[in-house]
Amino acid sequence: MKSLLNVENLNTRIFTKKTVVNVACDIDLTIGAVEIFGIIGESGCGKTLSMLSLTKLIPPSAQITSGHIYLNGEAIELNNEKYLQKVRGSQISYIFQDPSASLNPLFSVGQQIQEVFLTHKKMNKNNSKKESLKLLELVGLKPEKIYYDYYPHQLSGGMNQRAMIAMAIASKPKLLIADEPTSSLDRITELKILNLLLDLNKKFGLTIILITHNISLIQDFAHRVAIMYAGRIVETGLKNEVINNPKHPYTKALLECIPQNRSKEKLLNTIKGNVPNLSQLPKGCKFHPRCQYVMDKCLKDEPTFTNLKGEHSVKCYLW
After folding, report:
1. What is the pLDDT of residue 262?
2. How many other C-beta atoms are found inside a 10 Å radius of the C-beta of residue 124?
3. How far apart are CA 250 and CA 233, in angstroms?
4. Would you call 192 exposed, middle or buried from its count of C-beta atoms within 10 A (0-12, 13-18, 19+)?
5. 141-165: buried (b, 16+ CB within 10 Å) or exposed (e) per residue?
């Protein structure tokens, strides 16, 4: 499989007056061309900031302290803002968690899609509007001439998400990062949005990174997956390898939390404890305070990756 994105030893920290927070620690990823890659973990595990670091869309208090990122074999120049402005949107696009908050309330959705063509493709207004209407039709906002003039507050959450997707693919990027793209949607709309992303993956050869806390979504839509905990990737591999044969206790616990057909008397499984504050991480394995398999060495030293069968790797002393 030809790789599109290579991330090597990426470390991102947030500096506050009192402490330093490691939001992404030693992230290594290889994403194949035309692949749908899932990143899974509870809220606060560093999924979003890790992916925002790829184009340095991080808050002013954050800093990428080390790491190399390659897109199609070419290094992304993280210290060159003018260069990054060209990469954002044109080569790497994002779908953010809350489309209603991400879209500008002062402009119609059509105008906001059109702006992508004006900025990145240098089209004139007539051609850019024609292309915007085509995209609205592609993402299912029909009749597109009417929706072009609608403002975000006039659309439902699912419609705003479709408009966000249209904006994200307008410049035909190589990589689309979808951050919890269905978190605020009902189940039926969620499936429609995910199927739309799947169609775009097949139709345009679009590589997609799907960030989610819902491991059940990955079962139907991803090719490979990485499990994140406390700013670290703790398990990675082909979807079927990880989901059907999980090795890290955290992955097992996430899978056990998926609702199943069960008697009404039986409570839903949960993971004891909470995701640790990233500024106050425990020594050793960061999951050990919540792990039922904890050993003495888990309390002292953080495990490194162990390569298992195929592409399956895990950070755990059990293996």
Report:
1. 58
2. 9
3. 11
4. middle
5. beebeebbebbbeebebbbbbbbbb
Model confidence pTM above 0.70: yes
Rounded to an integer, what is the distance from CA 72 to the centroid of its chain? 19
pLDDT at 4: 94
CATH class of 3-91+173-314: alpha beta
Angle between helices 157-169 and 187-204 (to 10 degrees): 10
Other CB atoms within a 10 A radius of the CB of residue 264 amount to 5
In the structure encoding, which two tokens stand for residue 89, read together?
Answer: 């949107």
> How far is C-alpha 285 from the geometric centre of its chain's CA atoms?
24
Task: List pLDDT tens digits, range 78-106.
Answer: 989 999 988 988 899 999 887 778 899 99
283 pLDDT higher than 60: yes
Q: Which structure tokens are listed for 124?
A: 């004139």
Q: Name 314's Cβ contacts closer than 8 Å, sequence gap at least 6.
A: 234, 235, 236, 247, 248, 305, 306, 308
Query: Residue 63: which residues within 8 A CB-CB, separation 6 or more?
Result: 12, 13, 14, 15
Q: Give pLDDT tens digits for 173-185.
A: 999 999 988 877 7
| Rounded Cα gap, residues 158 and 144, in angstroms | 15
- Secondary structure letter of residue 83 according to DSSP: H
Burial class, 238, CB count within 10 angstroms (exposed 0-12 / middle 13-18 / buried 19+): middle
Reading the block at residue 129, the tokens are 């509007």
**Domains of the chain, residue spans:** 3-91+173-314, 104-172
Residue 21's φ and ψ, nearest 5 degrees, are: -110, 120
CB–CB of 103/112 below 8 Å?
yes
Cα–chain center distance at 292: 28
Q: Which residue has the tokens 């403002």?
A: 151
